[in-house]
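Protocol step 4 of 6: structure prediction from sequence.
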Amino acid sequence: MHAPSLPDRSIEAYAEVTPGDRLERLRALAETLDGVRVLHVSSTSTGGGVAELLRSIVPVCVDLGVDTDWLVMDADDEFFEVTKALHNGLQGSGTELTEAMKATYRAVTERNATEIEGEYDVVVLHDPQPLGTIDRLEEAMPNATFVWRCHVDLTAPAEEHLAFVSEYAKRVDHAVFSRAAYGGSIDVPGASVVHPSIDPLSEKNRSLEEATVAAERDRLEPLSFDAPVVAQVSRFDPWKDQFGTLEASRRAREAVPDLQLALVGGMAGDDPEGAELYERVAEEAAADPDVHVLTDLPDTTVNVLQRESDVVVQKSLREGFWLVVSEALWKRTPVVGSNVGGIPLQVEDGHDGYLVEPNDVPGVTDGVVALLEDERLRTSFGANGRDRVRERFLLPRQLADLLGVLATVLDLEC
């Protein structure tokens, strides 16, 4: 286990983007949790949505006076191949979970658990990867409360994978899901729903000076913002369906000949499939000069790309939540997204974007073309999206929900 480096965050800095009563609620919750030690455990510190959430949540908690730590597992590719199979299986399409794979999972989680020092009142285990540490942690911290924060879509899990995870999940004290629908498949002692959020002050989402935008636009060449740009920002993962987005863009180009597509993604440290899929997508797009496949861009560059694109497509086949939708809407860029997971919570169809069924490539095409051909519509949708995210999907709201859950499971009045 190791503790990642964290940025400085002050709760006061959010006063410009969130209602004052929400900040007061956070301060009151922090007082309720005075003296409580909280530990978050995850599988990676970079490249995924969980890491992005914790990178903001933990320092804000510290600033509020809530004693909070974050530890990241130390593991190799063999372990992450097992946990990626678990992830895929929980979302309905996993490979067989062999006894050897289960043994690898148990060995790595137990070893990591032995490296956690000190006592905590609450331990939050994020997703299936660290869930197995509960075996050893229950012995080491008999008075601790254990919370499983599940970010995965559990609406149609493979039975074998669900059964394996359930053996651990049923022993936590409480589970937190991103949507109510995700908790119906698994037996846990108690459950809450907390929608994820974006951090409007992070490098990926903060406001930028014009000079910075101009410099980053130049850095993205040969992509040109003098012609229509459609972007998809996501990990290179089969569930994100970059190939479907590529096909939709080719169809849309029949109506908008100068359309350009940017497929942008990072490599999560706990996803061994990422590099292979990136190569496949790049090979498929290689012959098309108007398709740009980009990886591991700095957050500021992604910020500018989402801000300067005309439309963002987020075409998942299955999805836990996918905060890149709110990232785009926060920057006033309309979204054409799949009607799966947390995407329909973020996009109101016909108001700030369009929702289509996950395999509906023609529907994606129609939504993209409609937005590219109507600047007034894009502007209206963009403004509506900004307002929706401000109200529902910024970090102070999520943090208030999370601290409220922790206070409740500890039976503290708040």
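Step 5 (inspection) to follow. The first strand starts at residue 37 and ends at 42.
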